[in-house]
Amino acid sequence: MATRDNGSGEPETPISTPMTTPMSTRSLKWDEAAGALERPLLRQRGTNTTSQIAVVGANSCPIESLDYEVVENEVYNQDWRSRGKLQVFQYQALKWVLALFVGLVVGLVGFFNNIAVENIAGFKLLLTSNLMLQNRYISAFVVYMGCNVVLAAAAAALCAYIAPAAAGSGIPEVKAYLNGIDAHSILAPSTLFVKIFGSILGVSAGFVLGKEGPMVHTGACVASMLGQGGSRKYGLTWNWIRYFKNDLDRRDLITCGAAAGVAAAFRAPVGGVLFALEEVTSWWRSALLWRTFSTTAVVAMVLRGLIDYCRSGNCGLFGKGGLIMFDLGSRLPTYTTTDLAAVALLGILGGLLGALYNYLVDRILRVYGLLNEKGSRCKIVLTVAISVITSCCFFGLSWLAPCVPCPADLAGKCPSIGRSGNFKKFQCPDGHYNALASLFLNTNDDAIRNLFSGGTDTEFGVSTLLTFFTTVYSLGLLTYGVAVPSGLFIPVILSGASFGRLVGTLLGSVSGLDPGLFALLGAAAFLGGTMRMTVSVCVILLELTNNLLLLPLIMLVLLIAKTVADCFNKGVYEQIVRMKGLPYLEAHPEPCMRSLVAGDVVSGPLITFSSVERVGNVVNTLRRNGHNGFPVMEEPPFSQAPELCGLVLRSHLLVLLQGRIFTRDRVKTGAAEVFRTLAPFDFAKAGSGKGLKVDDLDLTEEEMAMYVDLHPITNRSPYTVVENMSLAKAAMLFRSLGLRHMCVVPRTQGRWPVVGILTRHDFMPQYIRDLFPNVLPH
User: Fold this and answer.
1) Which stretches of sequence are listed as region Disordered (predicted)?
2) Are 111 and 308 in contact (CB under 8 A)?
3) pLDDT in tens, 281-292
4) CB atoms within 10 A of CB 23
5) Cα–Cα nearest to 75, from 499, 679, 768
6) Please, what's the largest Cα pairwise distance for the chain?
7) d(Cα 499, Cα 346) in Å, to the nearest integer?
């Protein structure tokens, strides 16, 4: 039997009888030479060949679709009828309680990540600095590289052996989940554990990566665990959260978690809300906006209180890194037409380099994908190799850099001795500092702060900035893709800040803007050129710098950079989503879909159930395939002619069979008989861990010969489209409603009531390209 994917991970519903292509002019092609219509473009192949496997983190795993549609069957109706005012209030109140609790937990996790990185990296840098002061240069290099290698190997081992899905930033996976794509490991508790500790180890190892991207994934994992009532696999379940046993409510809560992750990473609550709206979520509404904003407000308050506590010296080496706002100085930015031209030039260059960055990331990730397929050991070896290269570059280039005399007005602050500071002494004599060491031998947050600092026009020379930019730009490309939790925000900000400060230094005689301001605008240009976000990045940078007067310049450079970069390729996260094989539904369908109809892409044969079906037929069908949705047909003697009764889900069928509500004769039993044995919450979707499987059913031969009434669990109002509806219109309807299945019905009477089922994979360009090579060329 030919099958195709049904809902993004499972083979789709087959079709019982051979289908003919709808003969509409929309699926025909005009032959100008012959002056007539050619044969239909469609050549039915019978199967959907799109991939049912996608890369999640650094691991290939099966994918499925999420059921965002409300299944309005008798079980659902009975559940809502049974709820009193107290239960309805409890459901509404629980949404707010969980959203606020997500903010609290994510705020605590974000603070823990930051304090751990500051202490681990601070201890490593302090030890290296002390050895340098003792003129033990070789020992300092060995200790520095040894610490980095150990930390990198530990982070890679966690990802390789415990949770491969935790590798990378996690933003593409969260973006795909909120679009309706699920994989077992995307938001698993093990992924959360490795995401937190792997990110700490990876950032502390000195890689050119950040913890900001992983914080988005961490926030989503926290929200998922709370929303589904814990984890059945690890024995952590809470029945009082039973109202959230559906994908729709979990989606809203995970959106709050993703926004909270950005707020915790940047201390930017408004930027977190806008990031969720602009980048990760596919569905938005005003109620979710208010709830998400409340979540990020809790994060901001938690971080504020904890940071004030740490300023008294109670948090070890916790300094001014990470969560402290960057300071550009108190000088008011005044600019002329020449300054605006310089900013526009920076935006153009940032867009070009950002587009190049995305292109190179795509190529490098494909190579790393081939290497990661060779096993866990190869992942660890690759990570350690990149760590050695990074350590050698940072230490070696700093060693080769010349010493610069300290400014006369900073006699007491230059050179700085210790783990951080603008003027690193490194190997220089007294009264001198090493500019490259001030950038390389610091945490990434401190390096950004040094670049953003105002009033330090002569601190970093052209050669220093050029060397730092080239190194960070290259190592950022090489690092992203190794088996450690890694974000792209910090590498892009570092590259953009150094490039912007370089441009500001070169244009110092033409522009009167501070080099620190150019560094900020360069970071904005690179963010706009790589991630293609405008509003959220603008607000995040304003919250980072606490300077609203920079708004016009940031807006200008972001718009120019995004416009230029869009001429070459898509944003980095969109590219990674596509490269990972995640069947992401875009907001705007492919133009060629307007020349096709829904019936052109369905394939067969179709499997259906009768409204009262023999138990053996249901069990055998579930065992033969992995479909998740089946049309239910009302046939004589229950109706005069075959008609579509609705759609039944696989999970509901398994619960009903487990309840053994069978009859010896083919008769309707009704919902009352079901509720004598089962409760509405028995049909709720299980949390992470093992759910009910077909092999868990232990039915006797006598029971297999009985009948089961499917009316109580059948969705009587599934979304349907006529077979001659434009495929583009069907795709927009499918995405906007968050569907998993869409029934295609015939446009004429006298035919079988269902032509086929559309699922996510039927709208994928790869599938359409196979069917229509002359409509959607490679």
Assistant:
1) 1-24
2) no
3) 998 888 899 999
4) 11
5) 679
6) 98
7) 9
